Amino acid sequence: MHILRRINGEEVEFTTIMWFDSIESIRFFAGDNYEAAVVPSEARVLLSRFDSHAQHYEVQAEIET
After folding, report:
1. The pLDDT of residue 61
2. What is the structure's pLDDT at 12?
3. What are φ and ψ of residue 44, in 5° steps?
């Protein structure tokens, strides 16, 4: 998992990147409604707002530098 942070005006924005092997793995983690964001209650109390939906991407290339 990667957690990215950036200052956005007066707010601090976080983006979480999680890696899964398959859509089935995502469903196991998030449930049948796997496009709904999984935000634990401990995190919800710290956040002023969060996206309600997750976005899923497939890795097309891995480039080593």
Report:
1. 95
2. 95
3. -60, -35
Domain boundaries, the chain: 2-44
The secondary structure element, H or E, covering residue 2 is strand 2-8
- Whole-angstrom distance, CA of residue 21 vs CA of residue 26: 8
Cα angle, residue 49 at apex, residues 54 and 56 outer, rounded to 5°: 10
**pTM for the whole thing?**
0.78
Q: Residues 2-31, buried b or exposed e (16+ Cβ, 10 A)?
A: eeeeeeeeeeeeeeeeeeeeeeeebeeebe
Name residues of the chain where pLDDT drops below 70: none
Query: Which stretches within 1-65 are classed as H helix?
Result: 23-30, 41-44
Residue 31 pairs in a beta bridge with none
